[in-house]
Structures are given as structure tokens and as C-alpha cells.
Design goal:
Elements (H helix, E strand, L loop, with lengths): L3 E5 L11 E8 L4 H11 L4 E4 L5 E3 L4 E8 L4 E6 L3 E7 L4 H10 L24 E2 L2 E2 H4 E8 L4 E6 H4 L16 E11 L9 H9 L7 H15 L8 E4 L4 E4 H10 L6 E2 L4 E4 L1 H7 L6 E2 L2 E3 L6 E4 L5 H19 L8 E3 L1
Parallel strand pairs: 2-5, 3-5, 4-20
Antiparallel strand pairs: 1-2, 6-7, 7-12, 8-9, 10-11, 10-12, 13-19, 14-16, 15-16, 17-18, 18-19
The protein binds uridine-diphosphate-2(N-acetylglucosaminyl) butyric acid.
Length: 340
Amino acid sequence: MDIRTNIPLRAHTTMKLGGPARFFVDIHQKDELPGLFERAAKQSLPVYILGGGSNLIVKDEGFQGIIAHMKIPGFEIVAEDAGSKTIHIGAGENWDDVVKRSVDLGLSGIEAMSGIPGSTGATPVQNVGAYGQEIADTLVSLEAFDTKTGGFVTLSRNDCNFSYRQSIFRGDASGRYVITSTTLRLSKNQPAPPFYASLQAYLDEHTISLYTVETIREAVLAIRAEKLPSVNDKPSAGSFFKNALVEEWLYNDLLKQHPDMPGFAMGNGTWKIPSGWLIEHAGLKGKLLHGIRVYDKNALVLVNESASTYQDLANARDEITRTVQTAFRIQLEQEPLELA
Ligand code: EPU
């Protein structure tokens, strides 16, 4: 195991901010994990699993433990029936490569999650979703190293307790499991309407009526190119805030003052309000705060234009949450994980 020291983490996150890791190691196979965690325990060092770094914010003081960079490969069809194929995927596989490969196989279930940066093993953590699909829809199970027992476990979809941008991996069991592979069941049926509103609007506008995994992937990539900056030329972490979940009374109250405010019933007495709308209507879209730009094509995204420290980002974030709180009585929550 090649453990390196004092590795700058800004290069390993798409936000391009934050200090160094005291130790840094690449993980190529799951058998390396027990030894790594034993070693870390002996030296009382925390371990953090890094995927693509596209949903991670690192503080200026960096990380005084071991960053384990997940690189476990694998893409294997393990089962097939009349309507589906089940694929076993290594946690280190680039997510969009996985989507592309499954689309090339003509399989449906993750094509609307095209173009999302990051690694496959990270997708269950915040139940990644886009354009009407989320990983919880196709995940059958995942394998993980359980740092509590030192053994490997298989967790079913139910065990993961998925909800909007949430799972046990960032909830009750935060830090406990290292996901080493995921198993997805994908459909041989081609995608069918109803599609997510903005996806349907794009399809209509471009008179696309042949719905295949390829046409949906192409449409999603085109929509994303318009609304989300490419992490290669504009440092960002995708949506910087979760959409707001509010109780019905507050939603109705706000509607009186803002009749055009969008909202989606979650079915449990709460409403989801797009935080992008809230930030835009608080007057912040396109604004530059502490070197951080509220992206002019999508107010939910913060772009690191000229910030040099995490503190700049924290100041910008706090200014945005304060302004939205004052305007709408809603407390925005950060979406990307933050390394403690
Ligand atoms: N909106 C505005 N102003 C803005 C941005 C959005 O008014 O500046 C409004 C739009 O008009 C629309 C609504 O907000 O009515 C929703 O916008 P959109 O469909 O673009 O999606 P979103 O809710 O902003 C979520 C995910 C994205 C995902 C898209 C598409 C979260 C936090 N974000 O964004 O995920 O790609 O839906 O499914 O749930 C990510 O998590 O990093 C991410 C990019």
C-alpha cells in the first residue's frame, strides 16, 4: 500500500478549494481495506473515502487523517431475465462511463443520470438523482466494508433507507461503511413518458418523439450543458444547496406573496421548493460574493471564480442562506458533503 503524505486536496475536488490531506492512499481492491482501517485505528487516524471529489467540500485546515481514494474497478453482467440485466459495478468506476456503457447495451434506468461527475460508489451516499431518476430506483444491493465489525456486508436497497438526497451513509451510519461495489438492475424496455418536466420540454422543443436510452441520454447531456457548468473549466460542486422541504402551511403562506413560486407535493404533507428559484428571487443570481459566483444560468450552482480559501466559500454560502432566510423564512441546506 503506497501511502503518500501531505497531498493537496484542492486538486482532488471539483470546487478546487481546501487544504492538504496528512495521508493519501489509492484503493484498487477491497481486500486492501481491512489492513488500512486496522492501521488507522492503531494510530487513531480518521479515514475518509474519496470518490470523484465532485460533491465534496474541504476546509482550509485540510484533513488530519487518511484519504482513501476509491479506485476499485469492475463492470460485469451478473444476471439476466426476459426484462432486465443486473450489473455489478466497482465503486471506483466513473459514473458517467457506467451510464454510457449501460446505454450502449440498450439498458434503461440510469440514462437520465447522464453527465453527472463522480464515482459510482458515491451515488448511493446522497441518493444521486436527476431528471426523474435516482439511484434508489435501480439499486438492488451494494457491498461495503463495515468499519465497525471489520467485515464485508451486503446491504439491500431497503437497508440503505433512501430518501431525497439522503441515505444511511450520510445519516445514522455516516462514516461506518465503505461502499466497494453496487449492483443495479436495468430494464430492457426503452424509456417511456411521463418524463421530468424540463426533459419533456426539451424533447418537445427538438421534436424528439422516439424515446430510446440514447435519445434520452443525448437530451439530458444537452440540458446539463446549458444549466450546469462543466467542472473541467468552471470549478463547482453541482447543486450547492438541497431543494427546500417545507411544511404545507409555510408553502401556502409563501404562495400568497409569491403566486408564481414553484412547488412539488412530496405526498407526506411537505412541499419541495426549488432552491434555485428562491436564490434567484432573493436577487442573488449572477452575483459575485467573496470570489464565488452564483451561476448566472442556474442559481443553485456556486462557481469558484476567484476564491482562494474555504473561508471565502463559507462566507458566500452564509450570505446566501441569510438572504434567503430573510426573504422566505427558509433555511437552505448545503448539498455537498463537507470534510470535518
Ligand atoms: N429555477 C429557478 N432559477 C434558477 C434555477 C432553477 O427559478 O436559477 C427553478 C426552475 O425554473 C425550475 C426549478 O427551479 O422550475 C427546478 O430546476 P431544475 O429542474 O433545473 O432542477 P433543480 O431542482 O434546480 C435538481 C437537482 C440537480 C438535477 C436536476 C434535474 C438537487 C439539489 N438538484 O436541480 O442535481 O440535475 O434537479 O433533475 O436536487 C446535483 O445534485 O448536484 C444536481 C445537479
